[in-house]
Structure of Delta-aminolevulinic acid dehydratase:
Amino acid sequence: MVQETHVSAANLIFPLFIVDGTFQKSEVASMPGIYRYSIDNLLREIESCLKLGLNSFDLFPNIEESIKDKYATESYREQSLYLRAIREVKKNFPEACVVTDVAMDPYSSDGHDGIVENGEILNDETLEVLGKMALAHAQCGADIIAPSDMMDGRVGYIRKVLDDNKFTNVSIMSYSAKYASAFYGPFRDALNSAPKFGDKKTYQMNPANQREALIEARLDELEGADFLMVKPALPYLDIIKLIKDNTELPVAAYNVSGEYAMIKAAIQKGWLNEQRAITEVLTSIRRAGASAILTYHAKEVLENKWL
Ligand code: PBG
Protein backbone atom coordinates (compact mmCIF):
# COMPACT_ATOMS: atom_id res chain seq x y z
CA MET A 1 0.00 0.00 0.00
CA VAL A 2 2.72 2.45 0.84
CA GLN A 3 5.33 1.37 -1.69
CA GLU A 4 6.10 4.40 -3.83
CA THR A 5 7.73 2.84 -6.85
CA HIS A 6 6.80 -0.08 -9.05
CA VAL A 7 8.40 -1.55 -12.16
CA SER A 8 6.19 -3.24 -14.72
CA ALA A 9 6.59 -4.76 -18.17
CA ALA A 10 5.23 -1.55 -19.67
CA ASN A 11 8.28 0.34 -18.42
CA LEU A 12 10.77 -1.95 -20.14
CA ILE A 13 12.43 -1.80 -23.55
CA PHE A 14 14.50 -4.83 -24.53
CA PRO A 15 17.63 -4.13 -26.63
CA LEU A 16 18.27 -6.91 -29.15
CA PHE A 17 21.39 -7.57 -31.25
CA ILE A 18 21.00 -8.83 -34.79
CA VAL A 19 23.36 -10.50 -37.28
CA ASP A 20 23.04 -11.56 -40.89
CA GLY A 21 22.35 -15.15 -41.92
CA THR A 22 19.89 -17.74 -40.71
CA PHE A 23 19.71 -20.00 -37.63
CA GLN A 24 22.18 -17.73 -35.84
CA LYS A 25 22.12 -17.32 -32.08
CA SER A 26 25.54 -16.50 -30.66
CA GLU A 27 26.06 -15.43 -27.09
CA VAL A 28 27.94 -12.19 -26.40
CA ALA A 29 30.94 -13.31 -24.36
CA SER A 30 30.81 -10.40 -21.93
CA MET A 31 27.01 -10.52 -21.62
CA PRO A 32 25.91 -13.98 -20.45
CA GLY A 33 22.33 -14.71 -21.54
CA ILE A 34 22.37 -12.09 -24.31
CA TYR A 35 22.61 -13.20 -27.95
CA ARG A 36 23.03 -11.92 -31.47
CA TYR A 37 20.11 -13.25 -33.50
CA SER A 38 19.64 -13.69 -37.21
CA ILE A 39 16.24 -12.36 -38.34
CA ASP A 40 14.49 -15.76 -38.18
CA ASN A 41 15.54 -16.22 -34.56
CA LEU A 42 14.90 -12.57 -33.77
CA LEU A 43 11.26 -13.13 -34.70
CA ARG A 44 11.10 -16.17 -32.39
CA GLU A 45 12.67 -14.18 -29.57
CA ILE A 46 10.23 -11.31 -30.02
CA GLU A 47 7.30 -13.68 -30.09
CA SER A 48 8.34 -15.19 -26.75
CA CYS A 49 8.80 -11.71 -25.25
CA LEU A 50 5.36 -10.58 -26.41
CA LYS A 51 3.86 -13.60 -24.63
CA LEU A 52 5.45 -12.30 -21.42
CA GLY A 53 3.90 -8.87 -21.91
CA LEU A 54 7.18 -7.32 -23.08
CA ASN A 55 6.18 -5.19 -26.07
CA SER A 56 9.02 -2.79 -26.78
CA PHE A 57 12.31 -3.59 -28.48
CA ASP A 58 15.36 -1.62 -29.54
CA LEU A 59 17.35 -3.21 -32.37
CA PHE A 60 21.13 -3.00 -32.91
CA PRO A 61 22.95 -4.55 -35.89
CA ASN A 62 26.25 -6.39 -36.00
CA ILE A 63 27.62 -5.48 -39.43
CA GLU A 64 30.34 -7.36 -41.26
CA GLU A 65 33.54 -5.34 -41.43
CA SER A 66 33.77 -5.60 -45.24
CA ILE A 67 30.54 -3.61 -45.78
CA LYS A 68 31.39 -0.78 -43.43
CA ASP A 69 32.57 2.51 -44.93
CA LYS A 70 33.42 6.07 -43.92
CA TYR A 71 29.89 7.33 -44.56
CA ALA A 72 27.88 4.40 -43.16
CA THR A 73 26.06 3.99 -46.47
CA GLU A 74 24.99 0.49 -45.46
CA SER A 75 22.73 2.09 -42.84
CA TYR A 76 20.15 3.24 -45.38
CA ARG A 77 20.59 0.64 -48.13
CA GLU A 78 17.15 -0.79 -48.91
CA GLN A 79 18.16 -4.44 -48.41
CA SER A 80 20.43 -3.93 -45.42
CA LEU A 81 20.18 -6.32 -42.48
CA TYR A 82 18.78 -3.64 -40.22
CA LEU A 83 16.03 -2.43 -42.54
CA ARG A 84 15.00 -6.00 -43.36
CA ALA A 85 14.79 -6.73 -39.65
CA ILE A 86 12.52 -3.75 -38.93
CA ARG A 87 10.22 -4.69 -41.82
CA GLU A 88 10.02 -8.34 -40.74
CA VAL A 89 9.31 -7.51 -37.11
CA LYS A 90 6.55 -5.04 -37.97
CA LYS A 91 5.06 -7.39 -40.57
CA ASN A 92 4.88 -10.31 -38.16
CA PHE A 93 4.12 -8.37 -34.99
CA PRO A 94 2.44 -5.07 -35.80
CA GLU A 95 1.62 -4.70 -32.11
CA ALA A 96 5.32 -4.66 -31.14
CA CYS A 97 6.78 -1.23 -30.46
CA VAL A 98 9.99 -1.02 -32.46
CA VAL A 99 12.60 1.48 -31.34
CA THR A 100 15.41 1.96 -33.85
CA ASP A 101 18.92 3.20 -33.24
CA VAL A 102 20.21 6.08 -35.30
CA ALA A 103 24.00 6.50 -35.23
CA MET A 104 26.76 5.67 -37.67
CA ASP A 105 28.97 3.48 -35.49
CA PRO A 106 27.77 -0.04 -36.37
CA TYR A 107 28.28 0.78 -40.08
CA SER A 108 31.28 3.09 -39.87
CA SER A 109 34.71 1.83 -40.88
CA ASP A 110 36.05 4.31 -38.32
CA GLY A 111 33.81 2.97 -35.54
CA HIS A 112 32.56 6.47 -34.75
CA ASP A 113 29.04 7.87 -34.50
CA GLY A 114 29.78 10.58 -37.04
CA ILE A 115 31.83 11.20 -40.19
CA VAL A 116 35.52 11.57 -39.33
CA GLU A 117 37.94 13.74 -41.25
CA ASN A 118 41.52 14.40 -40.15
CA GLY A 119 40.70 12.97 -36.75
CA GLU A 120 37.70 15.26 -36.24
CA ILE A 121 33.97 14.59 -36.27
CA LEU A 122 32.08 16.56 -38.94
CA ASN A 123 28.90 17.37 -37.02
CA ASP A 124 26.71 18.97 -39.69
CA GLU A 125 27.72 16.62 -42.51
CA THR A 126 26.80 13.74 -40.23
CA LEU A 127 23.25 15.07 -39.81
CA GLU A 128 22.53 14.28 -43.46
CA VAL A 129 23.45 10.63 -42.93
CA LEU A 130 21.39 10.46 -39.73
CA GLY A 131 18.41 11.97 -41.56
CA LYS A 132 18.61 9.33 -44.30
CA MET A 133 18.89 6.59 -41.71
CA ALA A 134 15.92 7.86 -39.66
CA LEU A 135 13.75 8.20 -42.77
CA ALA A 136 14.64 4.66 -43.88
CA HIS A 137 13.68 3.35 -40.44
CA ALA A 138 10.35 5.18 -40.53
CA GLN A 139 9.62 3.85 -44.01
CA CYS A 140 10.18 0.31 -42.71
CA GLY A 141 7.70 0.85 -39.88
CA ALA A 142 9.76 2.02 -36.90
CA ASP A 143 7.59 3.43 -34.11
CA ILE A 144 10.26 5.36 -32.22
CA ILE A 145 13.53 6.69 -33.64
CA ALA A 146 16.31 6.82 -31.05
CA PRO A 147 19.32 8.89 -32.11
CA SER A 148 22.27 7.73 -29.98
CA ASP A 149 24.97 9.67 -31.81
CA MET A 150 25.11 12.92 -29.74
CA MET A 151 25.64 15.20 -32.76
CA ASP A 152 24.39 18.75 -32.12
CA GLY A 153 21.11 19.63 -33.81
CA ARG A 154 20.20 16.09 -34.83
CA VAL A 155 16.83 15.95 -33.11
CA GLY A 156 15.53 19.01 -34.96
CA TYR A 157 17.06 17.79 -38.22
CA ILE A 158 15.51 14.31 -37.92
CA ARG A 159 12.12 15.72 -36.81
CA LYS A 160 12.03 17.88 -39.93
CA VAL A 161 12.98 15.02 -42.25
CA LEU A 162 10.27 12.83 -40.70
CA ASP A 163 7.60 15.54 -40.85
CA ASP A 164 8.48 16.53 -44.42
CA ASN A 165 7.92 12.90 -45.39
CA LYS A 166 4.61 12.61 -43.54
CA PHE A 167 5.95 10.55 -40.66
CA THR A 168 4.50 12.92 -38.09
CA ASN A 169 3.45 10.00 -35.90
CA VAL A 170 6.92 8.55 -35.53
CA SER A 171 8.37 9.60 -32.17
CA ILE A 172 11.90 10.56 -31.25
CA MET A 173 13.54 9.18 -28.13
CA SER A 174 16.66 11.24 -27.87
CA TYR A 175 19.80 10.12 -26.10
CA SER A 176 20.04 13.55 -24.51
CA ALA A 177 22.60 13.02 -21.78
CA LYS A 178 24.86 10.31 -23.11
CA TYR A 179 28.14 10.14 -21.26
CA ALA A 180 31.55 9.06 -22.59
CA SER A 181 31.36 5.97 -20.42
CA ALA A 182 33.50 2.92 -19.72
CA PHE A 183 30.28 0.91 -19.42
CA TYR A 184 29.69 0.53 -23.18
CA GLY A 185 32.51 -1.99 -23.61
CA PRO A 186 30.44 -5.19 -23.84
CA PHE A 187 28.04 -3.54 -26.34
CA ARG A 188 30.95 -2.71 -28.62
CA ASP A 189 32.03 -6.37 -28.36
CA ALA A 190 28.51 -7.45 -29.30
CA LEU A 191 28.50 -5.29 -32.41
CA ASN A 192 32.22 -5.19 -33.10
CA SER A 193 31.81 -1.43 -33.23
CA ALA A 194 34.63 -0.05 -31.07
CA PRO A 195 36.24 3.15 -32.40
CA LYS A 196 39.30 2.33 -34.54
CA PHE A 197 41.13 5.35 -33.11
CA GLY A 198 40.56 8.05 -30.54
CA ASP A 199 37.53 8.10 -28.26
CA LYS A 200 34.04 9.58 -28.23
CA LYS A 201 34.78 12.40 -25.83
CA THR A 202 34.25 15.19 -28.36
CA TYR A 203 30.57 14.27 -28.72
CA GLN A 204 29.64 12.26 -25.63
CA MET A 205 29.51 14.01 -22.25
CA ASN A 206 32.08 14.26 -19.51
CA PRO A 207 30.99 12.06 -16.56
CA ALA A 208 31.96 14.93 -14.26
CA ASN A 209 29.19 17.19 -15.61
CA GLN A 210 25.65 17.54 -14.34
CA ARG A 211 24.51 20.99 -15.44
CA GLU A 212 25.53 20.32 -19.04
CA ALA A 213 22.97 17.49 -19.07
CA LEU A 214 20.25 20.07 -18.53
CA ILE A 215 21.46 22.10 -21.51
CA GLU A 216 21.49 19.00 -23.71
CA ALA A 217 18.03 17.97 -22.51
CA ARG A 218 16.53 21.44 -23.05
CA LEU A 219 17.93 21.66 -26.57
CA ASP A 220 16.49 18.25 -27.47
CA GLU A 221 13.14 19.24 -26.01
CA LEU A 222 13.07 22.46 -28.04
CA GLU A 223 14.06 20.55 -31.17
CA GLY A 224 11.06 18.24 -30.78
CA ALA A 225 12.13 15.17 -28.81
CA ASP A 226 9.30 13.06 -27.35
CA PHE A 227 11.47 11.33 -24.73
CA LEU A 228 14.71 12.42 -23.10
CA MET A 229 17.16 9.64 -22.32
CA VAL A 230 20.00 9.39 -19.84
CA LYS A 231 22.75 6.86 -20.42
CA PRO A 232 24.23 4.94 -18.60
CA ALA A 233 21.66 4.62 -15.81
CA LEU A 234 23.09 3.37 -12.54
CA PRO A 235 26.11 5.70 -12.21
CA TYR A 236 23.87 8.60 -13.36
CA LEU A 237 20.74 8.35 -11.18
CA ASP A 238 21.27 11.98 -10.15
CA ILE A 239 21.08 13.01 -13.81
CA ILE A 240 17.85 11.06 -14.34
CA LYS A 241 16.36 12.84 -11.32
CA LEU A 242 17.64 16.24 -12.43
CA ILE A 243 16.17 15.92 -15.91
CA LYS A 244 12.91 14.48 -14.57
CA ASP A 245 12.53 17.51 -12.28
CA ASN A 246 13.11 19.88 -15.18
CA THR A 247 10.86 18.55 -17.93
CA GLU A 248 7.31 17.41 -18.52
CA LEU A 249 8.51 14.92 -21.16
CA PRO A 250 8.86 11.25 -20.25
CA VAL A 251 12.41 10.37 -19.23
CA ALA A 252 14.10 7.16 -20.37
CA ALA A 253 17.26 5.57 -18.97
CA TYR A 254 19.59 3.06 -20.58
CA ASN A 255 20.81 0.40 -18.15
CA VAL A 256 23.79 -0.31 -20.42
CA SER A 257 25.82 -3.38 -21.33
CA GLY A 258 28.56 -2.77 -18.76
CA GLU A 259 26.02 -2.45 -15.97
CA TYR A 260 24.55 -5.78 -17.08
CA ALA A 261 27.98 -7.43 -17.35
CA MET A 262 29.00 -6.21 -13.91
CA ILE A 263 25.93 -7.72 -12.22
CA LYS A 264 26.10 -10.98 -14.17
CA ALA A 265 29.79 -11.44 -13.38
CA ALA A 266 29.18 -11.00 -9.66
CA ILE A 267 26.21 -13.37 -9.80
CA GLN A 268 28.28 -16.00 -11.62
CA LYS A 269 30.81 -15.76 -8.83
CA GLY A 270 28.06 -16.23 -6.28
CA TRP A 271 28.71 -12.78 -4.82
CA LEU A 272 25.25 -11.30 -5.32
CA ASN A 273 21.70 -12.60 -5.09
CA GLU A 274 20.47 -12.43 -8.67
CA GLN A 275 16.81 -11.62 -8.17
CA ARG A 276 17.40 -9.08 -5.44
CA ALA A 277 20.24 -7.30 -7.21
CA ILE A 278 18.44 -7.00 -10.53
CA THR A 279 15.09 -5.87 -9.12
CA GLU A 280 16.82 -3.37 -6.86
CA VAL A 281 18.65 -1.86 -9.83
CA LEU A 282 15.48 -1.52 -11.93
CA THR A 283 13.48 -0.14 -9.01
CA SER A 284 16.16 2.45 -8.31
CA ILE A 285 16.18 3.62 -11.92
CA ARG A 286 12.39 3.99 -11.78
CA ARG A 287 12.60 5.77 -8.41
CA ALA A 288 15.06 8.27 -9.88
CA GLY A 289 12.38 9.20 -12.43
CA ALA A 290 12.67 7.01 -15.54
CA SER A 291 9.37 6.04 -17.18
CA ALA A 292 11.13 3.81 -19.69
CA ILE A 293 14.13 1.61 -18.94
CA LEU A 294 16.17 0.09 -21.73
CA THR A 295 17.58 -3.00 -20.09
CA TYR A 296 19.09 -6.37 -21.02
CA HIS A 297 17.32 -7.74 -17.92
CA ALA A 298 13.88 -7.06 -19.45
CA LYS A 299 13.07 -10.61 -20.47
CA GLU A 300 14.52 -12.46 -17.49
CA VAL A 301 12.67 -10.39 -14.90
CA LEU A 302 9.37 -11.25 -16.58
CA GLU A 303 10.24 -14.87 -17.33
CA ASN A 304 11.16 -15.42 -13.69
CA LYS A 305 8.20 -13.36 -12.44
CA TRP A 306 10.50 -11.11 -10.41
CA LEU A 307 8.45 -7.95 -10.84
C1 PBG B 1 26.39 3.96 -30.11
C2 PBG B 1 25.71 3.27 -28.99
C3 PBG B 1 26.38 2.73 -27.90
C4 PBG B 1 25.41 2.14 -27.09
C5 PBG B 1 24.16 2.32 -27.70
N1 PBG B 1 24.38 3.03 -28.88
C6 PBG B 1 27.82 2.66 -27.57
C7 PBG B 1 28.70 3.79 -27.82
O1 PBG B 1 28.32 4.97 -27.73
O2 PBG B 1 29.86 3.51 -28.11
C8 PBG B 1 25.73 1.43 -25.81
C9 PBG B 1 24.69 0.57 -25.20
C10 PBG B 1 25.21 -0.36 -24.17
O3 PBG B 1 26.37 -0.28 -23.74
O4 PBG B 1 24.42 -1.21 -23.76
N2 PBG B 1 25.70 4.73 -30.95
